[in-house]
Design a protein that fits this description.
Elements (H helix, E strand, L loop, with lengths): L1 H23 L4 H31 L6 H39 L8 H26 L16 H28 L3 H20 L3 H22 L4 H8 L4 H4 L7
Length: 257
């Protein structure tokens, strides 16, 4: 039963992300490097937020009671802020590298910022999904374990779908965030930060997994539509793509857009 829970939930959580990686990134070494770099930036943001949260817990002397709940909320808010701060730092790094490449070799075609936004977002998402789900799966070890401390029997299944949402949201957030930086639309960055905070803290607002999952999926769909149009998509291009008549889409791996 443990193995079935592990592989079933892992497939739900990481199947689509793995498919995106294989079909859009794995064949290009440069994209793989940018993906790994994005994952590294997310890891550094997690490390710093963990250090701050640990120091706060030490200062409060691990006291029990309501203060621990507020400390947990503080840790989540701090982690989200650090993630978005490092997303901006990664954008600046990629922007500077792109400009340097163009100045050194003007004839060399540099990767577009839209492509880099997608790749970095997927790197953030995959690493975030791994860390958010590995602790959940560790609680599934043991004979017939269902739920944690009296939680719903669908706890692991809900966690798998929530992990999937987080991964996809990071992809969409990355695309929208980079576009906001490129066009200096700072309200876009604020929107990404606020939706990230909402998805991350909604478990503190309501204990019902179903409600949290539905609201997270609604945010994911809205951000996905936004990212689609920001990335240059249109209703016409979507129709041609679905009908396999979009030559630019069919030749995506043969030439840059």
């Amino acid at each position: 039963m443990t193995a079935a829970v592990f592989f079933g939930c892992a497939f739900i959580a990481f199947g689509p992300a793995l498919a995106l990686y294989v079909f859009t990134i794995a064949t290009d070494p440069l994209r793989v490097i940018f993906l790994i770099a994005g994952a590294f930036f997310w890891l550094v943001s997690l490390l710093l937020s963990s250090v701050f949260w640990y120091l706060v817990r030490v200062i409060t002397d691990h006291r029990d009671g309501p203060i621990q709940k507020y400390l947990l909320i503080f840790g989540v808010l701090l982690s989200v802020c650090f993630q978005e701060l490092f997303r901006f730092a990664y954008y600046r790094l990629l922007k500077t590298a792109n400009e340097g490449l163009k100045s050194i070799n003007p004839e060399e075609t540099a990767p577009s910022m839209r492509l880099l936004a997608y790749v970095s977002g997927l790197g953030f998402g995959i690493m975030s999904g791994v860390f958010s789900f590995v602790n959940t799966l560790s609680n599934s070890l043991g004979p017939g374990t269902v739920g944690i401390h009296g939680d719903s029997p669908q706890f692991f299944l809900n966690s798998a779908f929530m992990t999937l949402v987080i991964i996809m949201l990071h992809v969409f957030w990355g695309i929208v965030f980079f576009d906001g930086c490129e066009k200096k639309k700072w309200h876009t960055l604020l929107t990404v930060l606020l939706t990230h905070l909402l998805v991350s803290t909604q478990t503190f607002l309501t204990p019902y997994y179903g409600v949290n999952l539905v609201s997270a999926y609604i945010i994911m769909v809205v951000m996905g539509i936004w990212a689609f149009f920001v990335a240059g998509g249109s209703c016409r291009s979507l129709k041609l793509c679905l009908l396999c008549q979009d030559k630019d889409f069919l030749l995506y791996n043969q030439r840059s857009r």
